[in-house]
Every structure is written in C-alpha cells, then in structure tokens.
Here is the input.
Amino acid sequence: MIKRILTTGLMTTVMGLMTMAPAHAAVDSEVAYILNSLLFLIGGFLVMWMAAGFCMLEAGLVRTKNVATMCVKNVGLYALAGILYFLVGYNLMYSGVDGGFMGSFSLWDAGETAASEAINTEGGYSSASDWFFQMVFVATAASIVSGTVAERIKMFPFFGFVIVLTGFIYPIQGAWTWGAGWLSVSGFSDFAGSTIVHSVGGWAALTGAIILGARKGKYGPNGQVRPIPGSSLTLATLGMFILWLGWFGFNGASQLALGSAIDAVAVSQIFVNTNMAAAGGVVTALCLTKLLYKKVDLTMILNGALAGLVSITAEPLTPTIGEAILIGAVGGAIVVFVVPLLDKLQIDDVVGAIPVHLVCGIWGTLAVVLTNDGASLMTQITGIAAIGAFVSITSTIVWYALKYTVGIRVSEEDEHKGGDLAELGMEAYPEFGIGSQKI
Amino acid sequence: MIKRILTTGLMTTVMGLMTMAPAHAAVDSEVAYILNSLLFLIGGFLVMWMAAGFCMLEAGLVRTKNVATMCVKNVGLYALAGILYFLVGYNLMYSGVDGGFMGSFSLWDAGETAASEAINTEGGYSSASDWFFQMVFVATAASIVSGTVAERIKMFPFFGFVIVLTGFIYPIQGAWTWGAGWLSVSGFSDFAGSTIVHSVGGWAALTGAIILGARKGKYGPNGQVRPIPGSSLTLATLGMFILWLGWFGFNGASQLALGSAIDAVAVSQIFVNTNMAAAGGVVTALCLTKLLYKKVDLTMILNGALAGLVSITAEPLTPTIGEAILIGAVGGAIVVFVVPLLDKLQIDDVVGAIPVHLVCGIWGTLAVVLTNDGASLMTQITGIAAIGAFVSITSTIVWYALKYTVGIRVSEEDEHKGGDLAELGMEAYPEFGIGSQKI
Amino acid sequence: MIKRILTTGLMTTVMGLMTMAPAHAAVDSEVAYILNSLLFLIGGFLVMWMAAGFCMLEAGLVRTKNVATMCVKNVGLYALAGILYFLVGYNLMYSGVDGGFMGSFSLWDAGETAASEAINTEGGYSSASDWFFQMVFVATAASIVSGTVAERIKMFPFFGFVIVLTGFIYPIQGAWTWGAGWLSVSGFSDFAGSTIVHSVGGWAALTGAIILGARKGKYGPNGQVRPIPGSSLTLATLGMFILWLGWFGFNGASQLALGSAIDAVAVSQIFVNTNMAAAGGVVTALCLTKLLYKKVDLTMILNGALAGLVSITAEPLTPTIGEAILIGAVGGAIVVFVVPLLDKLQIDDVVGAIPVHLVCGIWGTLAVVLTNDGASLMTQITGIAAIGAFVSITSTIVWYALKYTVGIRVSEEDEHKGGDLAELGMEAYPEFGIGSQKI
Here is the structure.
C-alpha cells in the first residue's frame, strides 16, 4: 500500500543516505517493524489527545451559553471522523491512487491481523498502527472547522458537513500528495500537513464562516467590531498546551519510521524544531501585542503558539533551530495581523482558526522552499492553490446544500438563548447562572 | 511468576501462531525484554492518567459544593491503591495462586533490581514495569466507586472501603483469572478487564449506592426524579477525553508484550478497536438521546464513549472494526436506557458509573463469545456471576461494617452544606459564591 | 559531549554491573541508539506537559483577577526557556566544563542531523533528543518561580528574570554536576534534580518573594495571616495530576538510557518509586491536616503529592518501595509544617512552591545517603550549600537589578485591580463577573 513515505522529497533523500550509510548490520527487520509501529501508536495517541485540546480551546473561547454544545460537537466529530475514515476515507486516500486523483471506494481492512499465520515484517509497520495515525489526522482537520463556525451553526448539519469532510473532501485531496497522487508526482512537499491537514480545515472553516454569516451583534451597522470574549481563558490555555503536546506526535511520527538511527535523529530534530517554532510564535505574539496595543493579549499568545506549530508542520525536519524559530515567529506575526483583518472583512471566526490554520498553513507550505532544496516554490504554490480550490469549492457546495435543505443556522431566538439551552436543554455551568444571560 | 498472559484464550492462540511463524531469527531476547517493559511503562502512565480523568469527570458531575471533596477522594484513592497493592494486593493476586482462589499474603518485592548482577531476559519484562501496570488497574477499579457514592459519603469511611477493595477484594477475584486461579483454568476470558476491573468497581459502587441511599432531594415522595446537574460539563468532557486516551494504555498494553511483530500488530489492532468502540458509543448516545428526548444530552454522550470503551475491554483484539463499532454502540445504547432505569429503582448513581462500568462490563464480557472462538458463553456467565457474587457480598459486608461502626453517611446538615465546607472547610471556586448556596 | 551520565554515582555502579553481566550478545548499538533516543523523546514530552501542569496549578491557586496573567507567564516562560537554552544555556552547561565551573558561550548545534552521511551510533542517542530532554528541565525550574511571585510581579520584569535564570543561572550550576564540573568530581549525587532543578527554582522563588514583599492584605499589622484562597481547586488538582504524570518522564528518562535490560529494569523501578513517593506524600498530608486542623486540606494534599515527587527526585532508583514511600511521606510532612512557618516569616508564597521545591528538594538530596552507598552526607551538603549560595546570590542581584531599573512590583492600584485588567485588559472568566471585584 502506498504511504506518505513515498511522496516527500526529504524521505527520498534520507533513503538515499541510508544506502550510503557505512556498512553495518542494519536493524533487524522485525525490530524495525515493531519500532515503526510503536512510533505510529505513540504519535497516534498524542494526536488523538489533540481532539481534547481543540475541545478545550474552543469551549474556552465561546460564551458560556454555547460551551456544552461545543463539547458535543468536538466529541461527536472525533467519533464520526474515525467511522467515516474507516468506511470510505482511508481507501479513498491510499488505495490505488497511483498518480491520479483518488483511490477506491471500499472499507478499510487491515489485511494482516495478529491471528495471521505470519507477519511480513518487510512491510515496515503494522497496517493498523498506520491507519490509527492517519485517522487522527482527519479528525484534526474536522476539529479546526468547529471552532470557526461556533455559536450559530446547527448541530446536526454541522455533523453532516463533518461526514463529507472526513469521508470525502479530506481523503481525496490527501490522495493527491500522501496517497501518491498527481501532486506527489509533481514534487509537492508537505511533511506533516500544513496544507493537507491545516489549511484544508481552514478553507472549510472559511467557507462555512462566510456562508453562515457572523454572530448576531458581532459587527455593528457601521462596521464596528464588538469583541465577544470567551468564557474561560484557562480552558483555552489548557487546550493550547494539549495541542502543543500533541504536535510532537503530529510532526514527529510523520517521519513514519523509527527503525534506524537516522530515523531516530530525524524524529528528535522534528521534536526540537516543532517546539522552537511554537516558542517563536509565542514570543512574537507576546511582544507584538504589547507593542501594538500596549496590553498583552493571552488569546493572541495562544494562537501565536498554534501559529508557530502550523507553520513548521510542512517542514519540521530540514530547518535549523534558528530557522524554526523564525518560521514560527512569522506565523505568530501573521496571527496578530490577520485576526483584525478578518474582522474588517466581517468574517466571524470565533476562535481564530482561519489565521492559525489556513493562513499559517499556507505560509508554512511556502516556507518549505527556504530550507528544503528538494522543494520548488512553483510546485508549492500549485499544491496550495489546487488543494485550496478543491476544498473551497466542495465545501461551498456542501455548505449550500445543507443550507438549502435542512438549514445550517440556528434561529435568532436560539442564537440568543445559546446552543446549550436550545439544542441540549442543559447548561455547562448551571450553578453560575449569570453565564447564559449576561452577554 | 504467573501473569495474565497465561490465562487468556487468545494469548494461547497467539503463542501457538508464534511457533508456526516462518523461521527467521526471532527478536533478540534482551530487545524483546526492553520493548515489553516499555509497553508496560507507556501503558502504565496512560492508565495512571485515567486517575485524573475520573477525577475531572466526577468533579464536573457533582455540585460545586462537593467538588473539592471529590478531588480529595480521587487523589487519595489513587495513592492508597498503590500502597495497598504493594502491601497486600499484588502477591494476593499473583503469587502462587495455582488454580486456586488467592495468592499469598506478603509485600511485593521486585526480585530483580538494576543493581542485580544479571537480568534474566527470558523472564520477558521487568517485574517492576509489570507491577506498575497492574497497580494502575486496581486504582481504576477504585476510581469507579467514588463517582457513584459522591455527595453523601463520609471521606474517611470511603477511604476505608478503598483500602479493603484495593488490598483484598480486587486482588482476590483478580487472582481467579489473571492470577491463574480457578476461573482461568475454566477458560474465562476477559482480556483487559470488562469484568475484572470495571464490573468489580461497578458492583462495589452499586452496593454502596444502595446501602448509602440516595442524596436528599433526588427522589420525591411519589417517585419523581429530580435532575441534579453537575457543576462543570467542560471538566466532565475533559475527564472523558482523558479516559479515552488512557484506555489505549489500558487495553493496548494488556497485550502484555511488544517483543514481536505479532505483538505489534495486536497492540495496533487493539488501539483501533478501542477507539472505534468508543466512537460507536458516542454516535449511538448522540442519536438516541436526540430521538428519544428531542435534545442531545452531553452527559449521555460522555458516558456513551465510556460505555463503548468498557464494552470492548473484555476483547479488543479479535473483533473486526465493524464489530468493534457495534459492540461499542450497544454499550452506548445500554447507557441511554439504564440511566433512567436506575432512577426508577431510586438507586442514586451520581455520575452514571453503574450503567457504564457494571452493565457494559457485563455486556462486554458476554460479547467476547461473538468474536473469540476460544470463549464459551457458559464460562463467561460463570465468571461474571462468580465475580459479581463475590464482590457484591464482600462489598456489602464492608459497607455495613463501616456503617455500623464509624458511619458512612454525612449528617443531613453537612450534606446540605456540601462536603467542601463540612469536611474541608474550603470552597472549590470561592469567588463564585453562588455555587455552595444555590442548590 | 559530557552528559549527566558520567556524574551520578549510581550510573557508575550500573556500568560496572554491565561489564559483569553474563556474556551474551549485547543489544545492537543501533537499536540501543534508537531506544535511548526514544526514552528522551517520551520523557521529554512528558516533562514538557509539566509546563501545562504548573500553569493549571498556579492558575487555580491565584485569584480570578490574576488568572489570565498567570497563563501568559507560564506560556511565555516555557517559550523563553527553550530559546535561551538554545542560545546560551545548553553549551554553558555541557560544553567543555571539564571539572570546572561552566562551559562555553555558544549556540547549541546538534552536530549530527538526519541529513548526515552517517550516524555514529556509538554516541548512544540522538543529540537532539538529549537537548529536548534537557531543555524541558530548565523550563521546569522557571515554572517553579512563577507561582511563588504571582499576583504582584510585573510581567515583563518577570520574563527578564526568566531569561537570566534559564540562560545563565540554571546552566552554570547545572554544569557543576550534570555538566561534569567540580561538584561531579567531588561525588555530589542528584539523579534527576531535587537540588539542581527543584531547589534552584525554589531559591530563585524565595529571593523573589522576599524582595517583592507580600501581597497587599496578606499579613495584617499584628502579624495576622489572611488566607487568600485560589480561584479554582479543580484546575489546581488537574495541574497536580499533570505534574505527577510528567514526573515519570522527569525521573524515568533521567536514567538516560533504555538500550539494555538493566536500563529497562532501572527505568521501571524509577517509575514505581516515583509513584510511591508521591503516594506517601498524599497520605501524610491527608492524615496530618486531618489530625492538626480537624479538616482535610486539598491544597496541602496536592502539595503533599508534589513534595513526595520532589523528595524522591534526587534518588529514585536505589530506594526500596517502602523507603520510597517514607521519603515521600517526610516530604508531605515538610509541606504541612513549612507552609505555616513561611507565613510566620511573612514570606508570601502564593502556591507553596518554596516548601515543595526548595525544602523538599534539600530533603531529597540529603536522603540520597540513606539508600545510595555511593553518596556521602558531607558532599551532599556541600552541593546543596554551593548551589543554594550561588542561586540565591545571583537571583538576588538580578531581582534587585530589575527592581532598581524597570521595577518589579505592580502599582498598588494595579495589584488591587488584578493583573488581568491591568496588564492584559481582559478577564479569565468574563461572564462570572464577581471574580475580579470580590476579593
């Protein structure tokens, strides 16, 4: 089965080096098989944990009256993403793409099982470990959407969108690069998914935000922007820390192998660069908000960290530490400038996911050419544009299809009441009664 | 020392297969020893983290006035479980059971240490890594109890119960299967403990709930059920995510080995099935509550995820993904129907632990026969019944012994005030003063 | 490059044993290289997660009006620690110390990369994995400071202190022992840093608390102590659990190797002892507060767990389980007695970091001699005193330099308003409006 490994320029380099490596008994293939699978499992559980991170981040950044709804959406989308990726997504992304535009429509099947008579360790890793790791990635893409469209989208139509996104949109564009489709043939390089995961979520979020429209009261008649602070900055901070932690799995295990010393070095470098890009994003957002607004802005700092992480995701291996810090710092600056820009455009992005995941996703994908000689700017732009066009168009179609059938926006009355009372009939913090009435 | 590995039917199959495996140099025994130990350590820290998950889940589902008390209980029970399992539990469960009913009364001793002159790597793994992994399991069983009996149990009597549960009740019944006692001889199959861990906690919780009685005001004189919403659905959601994450360790490391490719495949499949059963539980609870009540219920969804996880725990390896989803989905449905049933019986289970851990624990143990040819329905029923009877009877004795000596229920006045003021003299959220007065 | 491994007495013992080990083919050097690096990466991400733990603990223990500020400080210090350790710290600590007082001033450079033509696996592990692991330790030291000085320190001067601490103070004293400097030559033994990490943070915190002075209203004119309860005991509890989890990485991966069965045994024992010391601290704090005050105190229990963890950190390998419990229990008792003592001295330590990290750090370092024959009491005292003197003096200089230039204390008005409004212009929980006015 064709895997991401075939499609990144760097991997080819590494594999080249491996043949050049001084002759010594290579790691036993069964040991390598175990270690490769273990990397997927560890990386996978770390990325699964990011689902909790998004949930906490988003629950912290919406108003009290929508907090429980936010939790339902995040739990539900993670569950649906797994089921859809099993039913359709994985094979659509990876099975027989062969330079083309998509794989086949079929249930995923591990092929081998622990009850098999023999495991062919030349395969490199357990196929179930790989599936697990790929599945948590598609969930990440869906998590990105939920934050942007929060506080005014109907729950079940949102889940409808998640089904299409995780079963079809994400896997088809994923097939182009990681599934060894046409973009991988052209040399598009996106190591762990600045474009393939993050900007995909970002485009879906952007189209959703535009089609849904802004929350009532967010923008005044003369274009005034009314800040709507989130309910809990500690939850948002916790969410950010969870995401930072999970990103070591997201980027680190995207090396896809731990069966050689070179892989161990690569994963280690990726950990370091991932961390330092986030650090660069934090410090930039900290200093810029102090300079621009005289006040430090915690939500900008949290998004600055995430911006650094998204920015390094397309190429966490080839940058030096200094370059990683700078790539992340640019990401942090992007967030500080794009958040108000979106407000000027009256695009209401509740949690700032569009600057973080879409704009920094693009930046990170372009930045690959700064440090990876195997990447070309034109090809990177092609990939960004092709994926952007595909996801925007298909998302727009799905959003409109939902809008004109079941409807996607809650009633004005329900929006005022909040999703928790309207769709759930419960409150997130029932003993702190002010929450649902104040704002 | 006899371990779980001897007692699961599947293991025998796997070991059978390993002899059949095509001749190639097996993994070096020292490398296998390291990898096996590493699996226990990773699995162990993930399951340890579940203690935090239970704490957050339960703190979120009690009223503000009992939140700090809930935290004390969860921290305290985790500490006590470790100490008791060292002092009595481990050897009572694993040392010299030999087809019988219990092991020996003695302190656990690792036997080998890093200062030993030589490590016998044929042993398979470090005995301390195994102890650590087994210890976090007993803590899990205790965590289950604390949620059900919350808001009206006295703190120190509760700890008294924990001591007996973790030092004696859990280890003795654990010896029957995992300690190679009489149930393992009969072929009872419970891979990671749907019965041995979860329903044990569930039976202890059920007897406690009955003997304690319901919280004041929970049930009206004519059988009306008054909902008592929890203080923080975000904490409850966080707790659920922590438990989901921890479950990869709980089930995955219950494979007990990572020293061969077959083990790597098995652990990977377990990860996938564990995840998908939870997903099945979520989607079922989501749809059922919408259909039945017109409103989606977040606490049901959280418990639906946990129900799926408990249901797959007795056999996370042999099901296909589709079967895993279904097994979890049945678990999710059980929760939706059993929660109101308990209320009809006026059994006050504050967090829903009885449906999740006891009823789904039974379901999961029965479901083993659907996918594992090595299991027989009669033997499964025997195991469930024997363990259920033993734990119910011993728990009842302990609860009553505590009740008629030190007392187990707080005074009516203290119950009204809440545990935080009564037993701790502090508030969980002192600046949100409504909490302790409103309900 | 010289590493911690050279400097702990126990390591020498272990290495001695390895030569004594019965002749069998040792683990292949490349496999050992991978496993050693993997230990650093797993340990590293667990310790990184401790940054979130400190953030939640501290955010939960300050008043609502300072919660968001606390989050900014914790996110910011983690980012800065990484950058400074890259720019100055690592090489100052590890490069060419050679029995002396410090290394060299230079950027850290991994030396090898995945693009290198060959990895010399005799080196033992990827240098980037080691750097990552060392970096998260310096962040831990900085995290300790932020809690003590909370609620009255200006944000940017605090970051200034963090820069000096993580770039210079911590690395220089670290060089003495772990960098193979003069203290390691003398035989000072501090396995994972009771002194080198925890008491370093503690001394920096103590000097800061004294120079800053207490929060307004904390101490009355006649020495009355006014309790100022924290905003969220659930967040504090969550933070403690995160720290407990992270500590398995902190102590476990300080074994610095997983490439042999003896290392696997050692890491496993460390996990067990670490856990049991924390359990000892919890039970002691639970019982002591009940006995002394008739009420159980949750914050004491949380600090009791951390006290146990700090106490075992200097030597988590040689104690038996029983000894580990006792070492942790003494730590728990220290916290219960030193917290009120500090209040008598009118040293205002907002979260209790001085008893936990400084006093228990000293206790743990002394306790090494109880179980490790290679350690001498005089040398341990020398190390504690030398590091204590160095860190206290340099910290005092830095605090005063900041005080008399930019100032370190917020204005009385801003202290009353709280950092969130004064420095951030935002509230952590804007819909729970009481918070910022009540206390």
Remarks:
- Chain B touches chain C through 69 residues (CB under 8 Å).
- The radius of gyration of chain B is 21 Å.
- Confidence is low (pLDDT under 50) at residues 5-23, 434-439 of chain B.
